[in-house]
Design goal:
The complex is a heterodimer of chains A (252) and B (233).
Chain A (H helix, E strand, L loop, with lengths): L2 H14 L4 E5 L7 H4 L10 H6 L4 H4 L1 E2 L6 E4 L12 H11 L5 E5 L6 H8 L5 E4 L3 H16 L5 E7 L1 H5 L6 H8 L2 E7 L3 H8 L10 H13 L15 H9 L5
Parallel strand pairs in A: 1-3, 1-4, 5-6, 6-7
Antiparallel strand pairs in A: 2-3
Helix pairs in contact in A: 1-11, 5-6
Chain B lengths: L1 H10 L2 E6 L2 E6 L5 H12 L10 E5 L7 H15 L3 E4 L6 H13 L8 E8 L4 E4 L2 E8 L4 E4 L3 E7 L2 E4 L9 E6 L3 E4 L2 E4 L10 E6 L2 E6 H4 L12
Parallel strand pairs in B: 2-3, 3-4, 5-7, 6-8, 7-9, 8-10, 9-11, 10-12
Antiparallel strand pairs in B: 1-2, 11-14, 12-13, 14-15
The chains are: A alpha/beta (252), B alpha/beta (233).
């Protein structure tokens, strides 16, 4: 669905806005947020150490190379998700919220312990959903579980391919919002830059011509209180030429 | 002694009572004709001249009673006691139904209680709503959501999940939705999976017909529109 990319990008964008931001990789055992952010060779302590009190939060938090005020707390690669329990996370949440303006937790896939741990300490949630029926079904389930914990989630639709939506081959964001019926936080188009960014560890939002990067910047601004920023609907490449063509009576 | 007589009179297969300006004879047509005749003689004998030119109505109660019997008994009564006319009583609703309708009317259905779980909102994937009897949902059922009821299921919104009505045995239950495109429907013990995609834009409902689940346009079929009197479901 792009949870990790979204976490890294929104975290970077919030930090670029001048906020003090921590991104926490909760995917214990399948650590990858550090790679996406290009910080994999600087890990000493991880989130399990910080939660269990083996180190201080400041020791576990790795400062980003490029963006000021952005910190990563990486996951442990050798443990599994059951080493943490939700009660630990609630205590950890109370400590870490004193140190940062925003703490973003990258929730692992599934609705088991990893999800429980991430949600236990959370005030708010962003659900990332792809325009696919299966993804919408899962998102719906997760939204139900979040509501059950009195968290009102917001929706980001990721990897939209506008040309496919126009041809009716992909769910439109309206269809998704119809089913999920929660507030829309942003629409992110499919973007090749995401792969480049993940492989190089270069933040997506710092790539000048990345549409997804721009979309995540706007999402971060909306999260940061500028809720009046209009939601931009991704437009296809062919759209302009098609419109011109229609004007001159060409094509269909 | 008297009470015994009265009891006999109530249980008797042939009874006589005054009705308006005539006489009403209640009898069981399954009794042998000779027996009925002897009973009629026993009842009409004491009337003497009162029976002459009287209007007699034969009431067969619940059973139909055939015209041959009416003619036969009519001829017998006219000959023997000189009664005026003999007719079969008009088939009419039972007295208790009259009373019930009158009561419904007078109290405007206040005396009924119907077990309905009425909810608003959305049933999401992985959520399950169970109603003891009827379920009324003002909202939607998402794909992967499940609604179960002992009676009917009415969704005032779109039904895209699973609906299980009439559990465990109620095969007269219906599933109604304004936007009807469920993953699966179950009514009583019958399951309908892989329903064809429905034409959208009007309310549809599923019900049992001859052991199968049938989906129809609710407004066109209007299954309850022809009921003579509002009933509690």
């Amino acid at each position: 669905m792009g949870k990790t990319t979204a976490t890294a990008s929104i975290g970077a964008a919030l930090a670029a806005e001048g906020k003090r931001v921590a991104v926490v990789d909760m995917d214990i055992g399948l650590r990858n947020l550090d790679v996406v952010m290009g910080l994999e060779n600087r890990i000493v302590f991880n989130v399990v150490d910080a939660v269990k009190g083996k180190c201080k939060i400041q020791q576990a938090a790795i400062k980003d190379r490029r963006i000021e005020n952005l910190y990563l707390i990486p996951a442990s690669q050798s443990d599994n998700k059951n080493v943490l329990i939700p009660e630990d996370m609630v205590r950890f949440g109370e400590k870490i919220r004193l140190e940062f303006d925003y703490v973003l937790m990258d929730c692992p896939a599934g609705i088991e312990r990893g999800f429980e741990n991430s949600v236990a300490a959370a005030d708010e949630a962003v659900v990332i959903c792809m325009p696919e029926v299966s993804s919408v079904r899962d998102a719906d389930r997760v939204i139900g579980l979040l509501y059950a914990r009195d968290i009102t989630p917001k929706l980001v639709v990721n990897r939209i391919i506008p040309d496919m939506v126009a041809r009716g081959e992909m769910l439109s964001h309206e269809d998704i919002v119809d089913v999920l019926s929660i507030d829309l936080l942003g629409l992110v188009p499919m973007d090749d830059h995401v792969v480049i960014s993940t492989n190089t560890g270069m933040p997506l939002i710092m790539q000048k011509d990345s549409k997804a990067g721009k979309a995540f910047r706007r999402i971060a601004m909306r999260l940061n209180g500028n809720s009046d920023i209009p939601i931009e609907i991704p437009q296809g490449q062919g759209r302009f030429w098609k419109r011109i063509g229609t004007k001159f009576g060409l094509g269909k | 002694m008297e009470t015994t007589d009265q009891n006999n009179a109530v249980d008797a297969p042939v009874r006589l009572k005054g009705m308006g300006d005539g006489l009403c004879v209640s009898l069981d047509p399954d009794q042998p004709s000779d027996f009925i005749r002897s009973e009629l003689v026993r009842l009409f004998q004491p009337l003497k001249h009162l029976a002459i030119n009287a209007r007699v109505v034969l009431d067969f109660g619940e059973s139909e009673g055939d015209d041959a019997l009416v003619d036969e008994l009519g001829a017998f009564l006219k000959e023997t006691f000189g009664v005026g006319s003999v007719n079969k009583s008009a088939k009419r609703r039972t007295a208790s139904e009259d009373l019930l309708r009158q009561r419904d009317m007078d109290r405007s259905w206040h005396h009924y209680r119907s077990d309905v779980l009425m909810l608003t909102g959305r049933v999401r994937s992985g959520q399950k709503v169970t109603a003891r009897r009827h379920l009324l949902l003002l909202g939607d059922v998402n794909p992967g959501g499940e609604v179960v009821s002992g009676g009917d299921i009415l969704i005032m919104g779109s039904l895209a999940g699973t609906a299980i009505a009439g559990q465990p045995e109620g095969s007269d239950a219906i599933v109604l939705a304004l936007d009807f495109r469920p993953t699966q429907i179950q009514i009583g013990p019958v399951v309908a999976a892989g329903l064809p995609p429905s034409r959208q834009g009007f309310p549809e409902y599923a019900h049992m017909e001859g052991g199968n689940i049938v989906v129809e346009n609710y407004m066109e079929a209007n299954p309850f529109g022809r009921m003579p009197w509002p009933e509690v479901r």
